[in-house]
Design a protein that fits this description.
Length: 326
C-alpha cells in the first residue's frame, strides 16, 4: 500500500471515529436528559380524594389532593370540615402509607392538624388529630372526574323564591329566615337554608343584598361555595365576592356598595363553572378542584341541593331561578 492510500485510510478511520463518538455522545446526553426531566411515575396516593371524617358518630366532609413537585417530593392541598383549601408543603409517603401536617385555620386549638393514612387501591383511610388534640377516624374514595361528553339540554326554569312562603326550602336548625314579597331575609346569624330538591348540572340566577361587613355564600350542589361578601373596593381574592371559596379567584371585583342588590348568573356543568357577576364574567369555564369548607357532604358524584349560608351575618336573597339540565 502506497503512502497516499495509507493516509486516506487513516483519515477515513478518524472520520468514522468522530461520527461514532458524536452519535454515542448524543445518545448518552439524551438518556441523561430523559432521566433528569422525564415525568416521574405516579404514586398511588396521587390524585384527588373525597373524604368523610367520623366526628362523634356523625359524618363530616373533607377533601385531599396530592401531586408531584419534582421527582422526589409530594405536595398537595387539604380541605377540612371548615375553612378553605390549605397547602401541604410535604406529603410523606412510603409503602402505601402517608402522613402530613398543616396549621389550624378556624378550628379551636393551636396545634397542627396531623393526618395519617393508608392507600388500599381506590380507597384511603386513617386518622386525624385535631388542633385541640382529639383523634378522628376517616375514610376516602377517589373523587370523580365529572367530565361531560356532550353539552346539556336545559329543562324548565324553576323559581325558588316567590311570595311570602318558603315552600322550596328548609332550614338546618332553628329557622331565622323570613319570606316576604319574594325576598328571603336572614336578619341575623342563624341556620343555613337548603332546597328540598337536588340538582346535577344547572344554570342559576340569584340576586343578593348584604349589609356592611356581613358574609354569606351560595353552595352549588351543597358543596362548592360561591362567595357572597361586602367586597366593594377590594382586590379580587379567594375569599371575596365572585370567588369559589378557597379555589378560584374572580378576574375582577365588581361588587356594589353594601346595601345594594348584586346578581350572579352561574353555570355549573360537571366541575366546570362560569360566574357572571353584575353582568361581567369573572370566572370563565374553570374547573372546581373539590369541595369547599362547610359543604353538606363529600359525595361529589351525586346531585345536591342549593344551600344558602345564614350563619355569618344578615343577608337577603331574591329572584332565585334555577334551570336544571334534563
Amino acid at each position: 500500500m502506497n503512502q497516499k492510500s495509507k493516509t486516506s485510510l487513516l483519515c477515513f478511520s478518524s472520520r468514522q471515529f468522530m461520527v461514532v463518538f458524536t452519535l454515542l455522545l448524543t445518545v448518552f446526553t439524551v438518556q441523561i436528559s430523559h432521566s433528569l426531566y422525564a415525568k416521574p411515575a405516579a404514586a398511588s396516593i396521587e390524585g384527588r380524594w373525597d373524604i368523610t371524617i367520623n366526628v362523634d358518630g356523625k359524618p363530616a366532609p373533607a377533601w385531599l389532593e396530592v401531586r408531584h413537585s419534582g421527582h422526589h417530593t409530594l405536595v398537595g392541598q387539604f380541605v377540612c370540615i371548615v375553612g378553605s383549601a390549605r397547602p401541604i408543603s410535604v406529603v410523606h409517603f412510603k409503602d402505601d402509607k402517608f402522613s402530613f401536617a398543616i396549621p389550624p385555620q378556624w378550628e379551636q386549638g393551636e396545634n397542627d392538624l396531623k393526618i395519617e393514612g393508608t392507600v388500599q387501591g381506590e380507597t384511603i383511610s386513617g386518622t386525624l388529630i385535631t388542633a385541640d388534640g382529639k383523634t378522628r377516624t376517616w375514610t376516602g374514595v377517589r373523587a370523580p372526574v365529572l367530565r361531560r361528553t356532550s353539552q346539556p339540554v336545559w329543562g324548565k326554569p324553576i323559581r325558588l323564591t316567590e311570595g311570602n312562603q318558603m315552600m322550596a326550602w328548609h332550614a338546618e336548625g332553628n329557622n331565622q329566615w323570613i319570606a316576604e314579597n319574594g325576598i328571603l331575609r336572614s336578619p341575623k346569624s342563624g341556620a343555613n337554608l337548603v332546597t328540598n330538591e337536588k340538582f346535577n348540572d344547572f344554570k342559576l340566577h340569584v340576586e343578593f343584598r348584604i349589609p356592611k361587613g356581613s358574609n354569606s355564600g351560595v353552595y352549588l350542589r351543597g358543596r362548592y361555595e360561591a362567595q357572597v361578601t361586602d367586597s366593594k373596593g377590594m382586590e379580587p381574592a379567594l375569599d371575596q365576592m365572585g370567588a369559589i371559596y378557597g379555589f378560584l379567584t374572580p378576574s375582577e371585583m365588581v361588587a356594589k356598595e353594601a346595601g345594594e342588590w348584586n346578581t350572579y348568573d352561574i353555570t355549573l356543568i360537571g366541575r366546570m363553572i362560569t360566574i357572571v357577576a353584575n353582568g361581567k364574567t369573572v370566572i370563565s369555564n374553570q374547573e372546581i378542584p373539590g369541595i369547599t369548607g362547610g359543604a353538606i357532604d363529600s359525595k361529589e358524584g351525586e346531585p345536591g341541593p342549593l344551600l344558602i349560608q345564614g350563619d355569618h351575618g344578615p343577608v337577603e336573597y331574591r329572584n332565585i331561578i334555577i334551570t336544571p339540565a334534563k
